[in-house]
Write a structure and sequence with these properties.
By secondary structure, the chain is of the alpha/beta class. The protein has 15 helices and 17 strands.
Amino acid sequence: MNLPQTQTQTEFTLASSPVFDVERIRSDFPILQLKIEDNPLVYLDSAASSQMPQLVIDSLVRYQTMQHANIHRAVHYLSETATNEYEAARGKLKRFINAPEEREVIFTSGTTDAINLVMHGYGRQFIKAGDEIILTTLEHHANIVPWQMLAEETGAKIRVAPVNDAGEILIEDYEKLFNSRTRFVGLIHVSNALGTINPVKQMIAYAHEHGVPVLVDGAQAVPHLAVDVQDLDCDFYVFSGHKLCGPTGIGVLYGKAALLEKMQPFKGGGDMILSVTFEKTIYNTIPHKFEAGTPAIAAAIGLGVAIDYLLAIGMDEIAAHEHELLVYATEQITSMPGVNIIGSAANKAAVISFTIDGVHPHDIGTLLNEEGIAVRTGQHCAQPVMDRFSVSATSRASFAFYNTLGEVDALVAGIRTLQKVFT
């Protein structure tokens, strides 16, 4: 059977550029050629959703035109092709995060879905009245609300690790939260609102000293950092494809096999069973136990191609370029009177949240858009962070490896222009 060699195609495309070349990389992203209000698009909203390279787009078209069929359910050519491509994507993700086994990689619809799977499958089974769950002030709502729902249902209690004025978790205060009732920890790896890179390996190790499992929300980490779940020793790690240059509607839950095997399925239906009678259902083995129904096949395959693409560039190279953008942007924005950066952690990803004296964040976003500059405005699904820094909302510029120093200059010029409008 002649299956498409997507990984080979990706490697071939990038092989001609052994050094990081941002202009060549930008040519891989057709959307970056757009103009907004007759201005070149300056896309600084990758923390919300990154853009897709042509290779990923091509993989989606190829699946729909040459491979489309349901998986795991037939022996005909198209079904076998789709199944092989889907499971090959699982293997790519296993290698991407260095999971020990492919069966520990579960496809979900995204980070939120993955966290809810763990809450229902693990939390409802093992967390009871009087137990405690530790979160941090930096969590995205997706890693707060499910645990609040569980606490309300079971009578468990949520305890929260605070942050300092730089937006860094106070580790001593985090450690003081542990006691004999602590049953679970949820940590964000990189803050979507501030860019803070948390010392999750240290925090996981401390939790494990107390026999407490840890879920890490890696949605903002995997696009920017090389992540090794074995090195972190996390029990669960979750992330989304659309922040990784992949399609929407696809995400990943990594979980240690021993924990996944103890968990109850979150959703029931086809393909997650071995046997069904009206008297009893026997569930499938992991990972299939947690993948009920027809999955987002094309999206999973596309995510696999996105992983090929990122690894061909190199995660270390991506991190270095984005750090250069962060340092340059921070220097430029810090020097501007009346502009305030929220979050000054010593260890940050390429995210800058800022306010401008006398200008509402939504006005900032609207006026920058007239210059073709796309930033995110609002609370960024992180209202506790906004409350901690006594701001109603911020504007957020989030950079990716396809951004340039010239685009930072465009952002700075746009801020200066809108300041003149409001003076």
